[in-house]
Design brief:
By secondary structure, this protein is mostly helical. The protein contains seven helices and no strands. The protein is 50% helix and 0% strand. The C terminus is likely disordered.
């Protein structure tokens, strides 16, 4: 189901539990919901790497000039946003699931930070860990001895 319907599905009993994302991760308690596990905290504890929350990718074989242009436009947008921090543009306010400005700011701060301009060693480690975890879990389908991240401690 779409992410914005998960809380209502749990509250109405249509689902026993769900994964909360976006602004809802800051407001679920206000609706009477209880956290079972923070997947970001779990990832960081298990891997020692930051959670790779998202990225912009370009399909292999695309024109390198296009990649450079996209990267420059994204950098320009980020630099503009950072120079106008903590203002929230009307566009953000109009498209936010949660209208409380403090919640909107928390959500943006989680996704738009120093990693947005440069991954650095920690960011590179996060991506490498994600790729290695995927490879290990994907190989597990063929190799029953491969060990995935454990959820039960």
């Amino acid at each position: 189901m779409i992410f914005s319907g998960i809380e209502d599905a749990v509250l109405t009993g249509k689902a026993d539990c769900g994964v909360i994302i976006h602004e809802n991760r800051f407001t679920y308690q206000d609706k009477g919901l209880t956290k079972l596990l923070d997947l970001g905290e779990f990832w960081e504890k298990e891997t020692g790497a930051p959670i790779p929350l998202g990225g912009i990718v370009l399909r292999k074989g695309q024109d390198q000039a296009l990649a450079v242009k996209i990267n420059a436009l994204i950098r320009k947008s980020l630099e503009y946003a950072f120079s106008h921090y903590p203002d929230l543009p009307d566009y953000v306010k109009a498209h936010a699931q949660e209208m409380d400005q403090q919640v909107m700011r928390q959500h943006i701060d989680l996704y738009v930070n120093h990693y947005s301009l440069s991954l650095g060693q920690d960011g590179e480690k996060a991506i490498q860990t994600l790729l290695e975890t995927y490879a290990r879990l994907n190989a597990r389908q063929e190799d029953p001895t491969a060990r995935p991240l454990s959820i039960v401690h």
